[in-house]
Amino acid sequence: MIRLQKHLAECGIASRRACEGMIEAGRVAVNGELAHVGQSIEPGADRITVDGRPIGVEDKVYIVLNKPVGFVTSAKDEFGRRTVLDCIKGARARVFPVGRLDMDVEGVILLTNDGELGHRLIHPSFGVSKVYVAWVRGGVSEAALQRLRTGVALEDGMTAPAGAVVIASEAHGTQLQLTLHEGRKREVKRMCEAVGHPVRRLRRVAFANIEVDGLRPGEWRYLDPAEVAGLRALVSLAA
Length: 239
Fold this sequence. Notes:
CATH superfamily of the largest domain: Pseudouridine synthase I, catalytic domain, N-terminal subdomain
Number of helices: 6
Strand content: 25-35%
CATH architecture of the largest domain: 2-Layer Sandwich
Mean pLDDT: 92
Low-confidence stretches: none
Shape: elongated
Structural class: alpha+beta
Largest sheet: 8 strands, mixed
Oligomer: single chain
Number of strands: 16
Order of helices and strands: EHHEEEEEEEEHEHEEEEHEEH
């Protein structure tokens, strides 16, 4: 037996959280009866439908995209803006983004139909690292770096300690490398602003062990088996 929302995510319908929303909205049925969140099912024995259509298990697909500026990190956008899925043409299965990057942020974004892996990669309990390069205003002092390294007080509480090093000092500011292990909304921007150095440009250069070397903005590739195994090992899933 398995929880329904987990099974839906594993079938590539959406992330586990999104699947819970679909169940709550009455879009999912088990053996002809409306389902409820937390319900257990027997894969292969129970008949499951979403919006009246039966579901089946899709092959797992893992993609990394070099997200360009100007794209929304979601499957759909109510305002008609371009989404990261507009960059993923020709993928062999439906995928959804793992976590988010702001519209004006570029760089590494993962997409998959492996709902359990996606859920764990963004869950704070696993502390998966994300590495950013931030171009910020002003010269960054050692005291400001130390605040980033020990935690910054934000309106939603103290941040976890972050790795923070100066890459280069420039005429109009500083280039920082920041390594975070949690995924709050706009966290890098808010942290830098809190220590007096607003972000002018932001790029994510790595998500766990995945980078986008060789990919131009808007280009994507499938992860290789070693990369997938590395991600799964990070979040205590079998290869």
